[in-house]
Task: inverse folding
């Protein structure tokens, strides 16, 4: 489907992939409904959309992990326009760490934001899309960590593999309603998340982490490139959307050559332990 004239909800719109996708959707003629936890960044995105000639139907800060807040947004939007046409679950947080360093707080936060957050949005916005009978599209942004067993990503993967499972079911359940589903699996993307990601037990200001983050940035794609992949995935009704070729290739190796995938994950674990020494 094309985005021209469509009502598009974007979570996580204040920065990174969410902001870039909102701006791209606006350029393609969508009417945007924007939300994020960061009110200042969200307002800046809305202003940028309007300055570029785009349309913002609503923008308001909220925490997607709070069902009451999401329901209030849904009630407000549906009272105005009946239903949206495209739902983009982009908001997310990240924490890495070995299982002996992660605490219950880390596990719970990642599941509440990265898994329950999209579920809250889905349960409040998708049923009205079904009742409207116009079709539509659902975008869930997972991660490479929703495809692979990346070292130190157990809690993050718990949330992202969960979202992958939800998406896998909905791609079939929603087909009869002409609602497509895209599962976006980014690899390295240069977003503010790289500056705020918590790596439990690793010195945030240490030279090792600074070097690792610099290598990550050199390898990463831009949020704008990720946004183009997402919009192309919607247009072509693709289920799996990769934002970079390396993730596509590793996913292919995982399915077609499991020993190669296992060797790669083990080597990555060794490299991370060497590059990011855990402080006592």
Result:
């Amino acid at each position: 489907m094309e985005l021209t004239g469509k009502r598009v909800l974007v979570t996580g719109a204040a920065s990174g992939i969410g902001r870039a996708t909102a701006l791209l959707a606006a350029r393609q003629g969508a009417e945007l409904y924007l939300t994020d936890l960061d009110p200042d960044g969200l307002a800046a995105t809305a202003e940028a959309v309007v300055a570029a000639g785009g349309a913002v139907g609503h923008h308001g800060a909220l925490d997607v992990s709070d069902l009451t807040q999401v329901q209030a947004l849904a009630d407000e939007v549906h009272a105005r326009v009946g239903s949206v046409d495209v739902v983009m679950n982009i908001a997310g947080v990240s924490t890495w760490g070995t299982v002996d360093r992660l605490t219950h707080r880390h596990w719970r936060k990642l599941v509440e934001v990265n898994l329950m957050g999209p579920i809250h949005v889905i349960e409040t916005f998708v049923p009205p899309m079904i009742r409207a009978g116009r079709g539509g599209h659902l975008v869930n942004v997972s991660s490479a960590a929703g495809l692979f067993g990346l070292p130190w990503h157990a809690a993050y993967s718990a949330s992202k593999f969960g979202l992958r499972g939800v998406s896998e079911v909905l791609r079939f359940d929603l087909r009869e309603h002409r609602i497509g589903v895209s599962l976006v699996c980014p690899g390295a993307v240069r977003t503010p998340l790289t500056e705020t990601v918590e790596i439990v037990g690793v010195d945030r200001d240490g030279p090792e982490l600074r070097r690792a983050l610099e290598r990550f940035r050199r390898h990463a794609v831009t949020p704008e490139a990720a946004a183009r992949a997402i919009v192309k995935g919607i247009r072509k009704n693709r289920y799996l959307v990769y934002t970079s070729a390396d993730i596509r290739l590793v996913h292919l190796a995982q399915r077609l050559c499991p020993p190669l995938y296992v060797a790669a994950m083990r080597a990555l674990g060794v490299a991370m332990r060497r590059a990011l020494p855990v402080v006592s």
The chain has one domain: 7-275.
